[in-house]
Amino acid sequence: MRLKLLFAALLLSASAVTPVAAQDKTLKIVLDTELQVLDPIATTSYVTRTFAYMVFDTLVSMDSKGEYRPQMLESWEVSPDKMSYTFRLRPGLKWHDGTDVTAEDCVASLKRWGARDGLGRQMFAATKEIKAVDASTFTLVLSKPFGLVIDSIGKPSSNVPVMMPARLAATDPTKPIPEVIGSGPFTFDSKSWRPGNIAVFLKFKDYKSRPEPSDGLAGGRLCCRSPQPIA
C-alpha cells in the first residue's frame, strides 16, 4: 500500500511572485514506499532518512556545492594540530517537547549514532574524549589524526547523525526510539500514524530556522522562514 504523507503545515515560500496568503496550508504527498521505522539511527532505510530531515536536525549540513555549513551549530573551531574540536550551538534551539537543546543532548546523540554508523564508528575509534563544556558548548578530542570529523557529523546519507534529547539517545542504537522528538521544522503526529496508510507532520511553531537562504540541505528551511517582501 502506498504511503500518504500529510504535511499539515504553513508553507512559507521564498518566491517573490506568489503571495503567501494565496497558498494552501496543507500539502498531501503519495509515495510508493511505506514509512515503517521512525528512527534513522536504527535503520538505513531511505524513506526513514527522508523522514528524519523533516523531524530532526543536524549539527552540520551540506550545501549544493558539497561544502559543510553550520546547521544547529553557531560555529566550530579546530585546533592548529587538528586534534581538538570545539562546537557551539545556536541559541534558542528547542526540542519538540518544549525543552532546550543542550550540548549534553548532542554528545549523547553523537555517541548513539557513532555506535551504529560506519563512518561514525571510525570517528569514535579515533576519539579520545567527547564532552559537554557548558549548556551550549561541547568538545571532541582525538586520540589519533582523523580528518573526517566534520564530514562525519555532516554526512547526508544514512545513518544521518540527527540530534535528539539525551533521554532518547540513551536508547539501544539497534532498537527504535520509543518517542519521536526532534528539533526540526515539523513535529510527528504519532496518534495519527497508520503505517502504510497515513503519516501526519505539523509545523513546529518554535523551530528556529537559519537566516541564510536554503542551499542544498543547508541554510534556512523554506517552510519556516519569514515571508520575503515582494519587490
UniProtKB/TrEMBL annotation:
Residues 1-22 form the signal peptide. Residues 67-211 form the Solute-binding protein family domain. The keyword Signal applies. Belongs to the bacterial solute-binding protein 5 family. GO terms for biological process: peptide transport. Pfam families: SBP_bac_5. Keywords: Signal. It comes from the Bacteria. GO terms for molecular function: peptide transmembrane transporter activity. It is found in: Periplasm. The keyword Signal applies. This is Solute-binding protein family 5 domain-containing protein.
